Sequence to fold (703 residues):
Amino acid sequence: MRVALAVPCYVDLLRPQVARATLLLLERLGCEVSLEFAAPCCGQPMHNAGDFDAARAAASNWAASAQRFDVVVMPSGSCTHHVRHHLPGLVAGATATHAAQVTFELCEFLAGPLGSAKLAGRFPHRVAMHLGCHAQRGLRLGGSSELHQPPSGPMHALLGGLEGLTLVPLDRPDECCGFGGSFAIGEPDLSVAMGRDRLTDYTAHRAEVLVSSDPSCLLHLEAIASRSAPTLRTMHIAELLEEATR
Amino acid sequence: MSRTHPAAAAVFLRDSERAAWHDEALWFVRQKRDTATALPEWEALRDAGAALKAHAMGRLAELLETFETHATAAGVVVHWARDAAEHNAVVLDILRSAGATRVAKSKSMLTEECGLNPVLEASGIEVVDTDLGERIVQLAHEPPSHIVLPAIHWKKEEIGALFHRTMGTPAGESSPEALAAAARDHLRDALLHADAAITGANALVAETGGVVVCTNEGNADLGMHSAPLHIVCVGIEKIIATLDDLAVLLRILARSATGQPITAYTTHVAAPRPGARMHVVLVDNGRSARLADPEMRSALHCIRCGACLNSCPIYRRSGGHSYGYVIPGPIGAILAPAVDLKAHHDLAFASTLCGSCGDVCPVRIDIPAQLLAWRGRAAAAGALPAGYAALIRRFGAILADRRRFDRAGRWARQALRLIPSALLTGRWNPWTRASRTLPVVPRESFREWARREGRLK
Fold:
């Protein structure tokens, strides 16, 4: 299958290894991956900060880039949510609708269009799963406690299918980590308090690895864990799956 | 209360043990809600709740007039108040004409919204809040910190000390049973000797002209059934069409609020007692303006259950007073900006847009969507700090342009690598101020790698 890899702005800049793992994984699964997706950002940071005009400029640029492709994969639930749910509201016309229809979060793509709900691989570790809120309640890629659903969804299934992997139970499996884009900067004390509480939940259940499908949650949690939980290894789902299926 | 939400939250979090206790106390209520709402028909009930409210708001004027006709026929005097000042004047006038000087009030967020107590007190009328939590915050001269659990931020030892000071309970007494018993004595006296009872209402039923009041303590009932005068103060959005609608409303209200199947007391008042008088004051105070705002209208569907507060990771860790508005939490954060956008713009940003509030809301108010919309309105109205707005605009210009982004990215990574981290982690940096470390910066971006590998021109 031919797909475009859209690398979120901050991943390109700060976590290129997440994009590389995504690329490796997709190619290993037989995808023909184009890296020619030109737009750097879907506009979410400006949108969440209230500047809808600035968001529109980035979003329309993003939609134009997506026009060339039939499938666009993003290693981020939050960006995918913005593209699918907000691009058509920000940018008038068919390009935004097309972008919203062809863009998939990585796990969603693997389990859906690619049809690989399970990957053969091995990862013999105790793993805590953090589904970002926009993947969880925005894209509905996981069961939500508010809706009385058990943890589930494509990422949960992919992890569950790996040999040796133990998903640790969590006290609050779908509580927000406190990143929230501009929130992390605008409300730093709350943001860190929320992140700390998530880390306490992971370490209390003796997780060795924290995995998320959202690199933004990870950047924030890593920045707290480096002091408070230095032995916890943080990984993006692409990195974990890539390592497990080598 | 002029402190912004981030500043108030920082103060609240300074006592980390207390903040953790507050978070756990409310998470416990959220979990009770989860259990009580685990019904096969829960999502259908939410649909029905949303529909009955949307229906009532769509026929607001007509239903209110139907209510007025039925209530008036039953001997109730119905008043209409355009705003808080008019509401307070109407209530004061009713009390004065009756010569009432002692008022027993049960829980009503509407009277908090209108600031009724100080107005009555200034006119020599004594008001006793008879809901236990409300009484605690009244004795402490504080506003409620939660719309259902007004004193949730008080620990029992602190309540013991407060009661010792104000009611003469033994020093050091902090058992909930003993304190509740003392409060019961204290409040019963106020309830039995009141000249008037003021209550709120959880619903007004148009087809019957009835007022429905839900409490767990029975204080509203004691008040309205003992005093010769009962005044109901209620926002116009509390109207519903039928008793069938009420059946749905009552099923979702207590389950969402406290995790009970139904409140301990659910009272229907259809007429004044023989020899007593009853008034209903219908208050607009911005509600019809909200109705005329399609994007934000559904906030009027709120049944004040408080589930979004209990579920909100920000509310739980910053406390109700951090919002600086009479209604805190996610629902308050979408109501307050309509009152004063400049003063309350910070509340639209007191959220990660995690979506939990929208998913627990029993009437499906899309709170996250309205939070986001208020951010846009705040920015468009110039209500955000100028420096912040300019910074976002500059970021936007970079993020909308591949060449600028690549250039800025190279520069930023270089700067993060070369500048000593001590210079980057000062008090000015909100990323590191609250003890986050700076990100480890890679040598090359993904696109630089891809170019080097020949994967990208």
Remarks:
- Chain A touches chain B through 72 residues (CB under 8 Å).
- Residues 2-111 of chain A form one domain.
- The beta strands of chain A are 2-5, 32-34, 72-74, 103-105, 126-130, 166-167, 209-212, 233-236.
- The first strand of chain A starts at residue 2 and ends at 5.
